[in-house]
């Protein structure tokens, strides 16, 4: 049995570059979702092809392809050149049965249905990630500080594969320490394999075709699956695998840099208005006596929470959809997103060459799944069966990208843990749900938001997103207050900048490191 070298070491936190807002729906947009963590490298490499392809075929369970490889997938000029040179030097792709490469029975371990006593949404110096079958956030469900975890249940430098659920077969790589929940399989690869070789192999496993509720991966099937690996003289070409992933990472860094510049997200400096909004939110979420101690300004603009019934703000109704089978719907390729019941990729499962049925700048959710299916749709899209849309009834000119992203957060919070495939999230229930929104007295809505403290801290949506039952707040059917849309917009812009800051700094650091390597080799 391959021993894990991390079992006797102290538990250390993983994913320290993780965006501080990973659990906040406010910035979980279609554009930003896949840059949450540097360790989620598979999500930014060709491994996404495996999981994203599963999501695109919503008409049926994906057929299990018994052979996976990356040959022929090199689309960029740099990767094409790398592949041509590999073949010219005698390289080839050779089929290997996974069970012949590894002792699957002994070195691949199923996660136990362990109940951890401590659970945290954010890591610190004492936490360790808990990996489950979820297919977002690099598989991290939460963090724990439990001290009684057996040494042989702490892993590191390994792959995991989700073994249950619609997106089973999703593979992630973890270079730091982690522990397992249920519905997960940890895969120990030989110590002599480099990190990039493991990522390359993870891509192949992710492409095997598992997925859907009838396509669960098991040791018995995985050991007989066949993957196609680069080889020289019949032996695995680790150098090629290393070079391939390096080139892929360099490309992704360049794409990220270009995206950040085009969108303006590379500028994470807070404006004064955004600082004011953060301070106002901090004070709004702090008891009055403590607020005065922190800010020293007892006479601030009286922002307060008011309870709103969702049905008072939005009409909720099914999105318009084409009356055609999935096969017909998805056979035309284009750039118009189809929003389905998926809880991944902003709910988008395919892009088609049809006319949109719905306008963008709206919130959608699936009435068949959980609150994870609530998304803001920035673009015109094609609707789908069981996808509900939220159409503003009041303040129609105020519901823009930022205010709707904020509403996504409070809507998700209000519905979290209440719905599943057995307990449907129908329109009637959604309309009666209550959320808390920040409001200003009508006469004060144009006043400044108060003095700003230089103290920087992570922002907590917990109070802002409590439900009516949590807070027992009366409805705000009065005209004495109006929703503080200007504050909301400044607040969300500030949150986006705080969240993107670590991504920008990481991208700049990695780009410098890559440039130094290139200059050294030149």
Brief rundown of the structure:
The protein is an alpha+beta fold.
Describe the structure.
Helices cover 32% and strands 18% of the residues. The chain folds into 2 domains: 37-240, DNA methylase specificity domains (Adenine-n6-DNA-methyltransferase TaqI, Chain A, domain 2, Alpha-Beta Complex), CATH 3.90.220.20; 272-487, Adenine-n6-DNA-methyltransferase TaqI, Chain A, domain 2, CATH 3.90.220.20. Helix 2 (77-88) runs antiparallel to helix 7 and helix 8 crosses helix 15 (485-521). It is α+β, with helices and mostly antiparallel strands and 522 residues long. Keywords: Endonuclease, Hydrolase, Nuclease. It is an enzyme of class 3 (hydrolase). Its EC number is 3.1.21.-.
Range of strand content: 15-25%
Please state the second-level CATH architecture of the largest domain.
Answer: Alpha-Beta Complex
- Shape summary: globular
Radius of gyration: 25 Å
Major beta-sheet overview: 4 strands, mixed
Number of helices: 15
Amount of helix = 25-40%
CATH superfamily of the largest domain: DNA methylase specificity domains
Q: Which CATH class of the largest domain is shown? A: Alpha Beta
CATH topology of the largest domain: Adenine-n6-DNA-methyltransferase TaqI, Chain A, domain 2
Keywords: Endonuclease, Hydrolase, Nuclease
Protein name: Restriction endonuclease subunit S
Enzyme class: hydrolase
EC number: 3.1.21.-
